[in-house]
Amino acid sequence: MELQLLLTLPWIAGLFCQTELYTFKHVKVFASSTSPNEGENVTLKCAVCGGNSSANYHMYLCKNGVAVQMQKLTGDNDAIFALTTITSRESGNYSCVYANKKIPYSEVNSTGKYSIIIQVKSENKSLPGTLTTTLAPDGQKYEVIQLILILIAILLALLGMCYIAYRKIYKTILFTFPTVNTASADNTLDDNVLYYDHTGQPVQDIYDS
Question: Does some domain include residue 130?
C-alpha cells in the first residue's frame, strides 16, 4: 500500500505542475470607429497606463472573450491592432488583456474589464427605380417584379384595343351621311329658299311644266 502511494505521488505532482493558472491584466481599449461600414479599416489601441515600464509582456486583443491577435511589447508602449477591410463578421465585443508570458490563443478567454462594441454596417444599396420588398427573399422579389410587368402589359393591351375601337367608331360616324329629302310631302320646295332649274330660271314647284 505504501509502495503504491509512493509511486502515485510523483504522477500527481506532475499533473499539478502541468496545470498553469494564467493571470491577465486588463487595459483600456480605444477604437477609431465603433460603427464602420463594410470594407473600411478600424484601428484598435490597447493603452497600458504605467506600472510596466521595464517588463516584457504580451498584449492580446479579444473578440467576444477569445483572443484574435497578439503583440509582444516592452515598457509602456501601447499596442495597436488593425482590422482591415472589415465585414459584418467582425462585429462584436472587443477588449484587451495582457500577461507577462506568451499564452496560446485558445487559453486566452477573457472579456476584459474594459470593452467596446463594434457594429459593422452592411451596405445594401439599390439602384434608383429598382423595386424591392422589405425582408423578402430574392425569389419573392423577382416574382413581384414579374407580376407587375404582366399587369402593365395587360393594361397596355387594353388601352390599345380601346384606341382601335375608338378609331373605327370615329370613321363610321365621319364617313356615313344620312339621306336628305329636299322636297316636302307635297313635292314643293322650301318657300324660304330660292332654287334654280337647269336653264337658270327660278322655280317653286319641281313638277311645274
Answer: no
For residues 34 and 91, the answer to whether their CB atoms sit within 8 Å is: no
DSSP state of 135: T
- Provide the CATH number for the domain around residue 75: 2.60.40.10
Confirm whether 112 is domain-assigned.
Answer: yes
Q: Within a domain: residue 38?
A: yes
In contact, 54 and 98? CB cutoff 8 Å:
no
Write down the mean pLDDT value for the chain. 75
- Residue 49 counted as domain residue: yes
Whether this prediction's pTM lies above 0.70 is answered by: no
Instruction: Give per-residue burial for 38-67: e unless 16+ CB within 10 Å, then b.
Output: eeeebebebebeeebeeeebbbbbbbeeeb
Q: Which residues 6+ apart lie within 8 Å of 68 measured at CB?
A: 61, 62, 105
Q: State how many domains the chain has.
A: 1
